[in-house]
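User: I'm putting together notes for a lab meeting next week and I want to include a structural view of one of the chains we've been expressing. I don't have a solved structure, so I'd like a prediction I can at least talk through. The sequence is below, exactly as it appears in our construct file.
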Amino acid sequence: MKKMNLFKKLAVCLSAGALLSASVSAAAAPVGYSIPGSFTVSPFTTPGATNISVCVHTMLTYLAGSSPSHADINAGLSIMTIPSYLNSHQRRHRYVQAANPTLTDFKHMVWYDIVTCQVPTLMRISGSGIARWYYSPVGNGIMVTGITSDKMQVKIADPMGYVAAGCPVYYSKPTAVVQSYTHWICY
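Assistant: Thanks for the context. Below is the predicted structure for the 187-residue chain, given as structure tokens.
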């Protein structure tokens, strides 16, 4: 009789352990953070619009409610002047820039923008290996609008989704892959 009770207790403990393990696994799943509100990527509708000008236009529309035209954005705009351009056209966030961030710095910069300041991050990507991206980026601009709590995945808004075959406008990628393609970041 005592052996039977011992087996029943063992079965109950194993069953409870399995339930506890399942609930811990579910609780450990990363939480996703995104900038608040609606973030809509501007399409390439204006002649002369560049990938970077579309990103700047999109970000200013989100941050300030409106944006100068693509032609006005393109006039004299270079990678080095984007932070000051963004800062002169909106007051929600003061953007700065960095080149070739490490993975640790990249995660911190994106987390700061998305979670702390609730604004998008702009970056310029380049690299080969279409297997890791939807196209071969050659200085393309993308915007990050979300990050997981473990900082292992980011949500991307990519104007190339309007023109590159098979590329969606909104998608997620591992943070390490995005950082490996990033040679400039505006956060």
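A couple of points you could mention at the meeting. The longest strand covers residues 138-148. Residues 2-28 form the longest helix (27 residues).

User: Perfect, that's what I needed.
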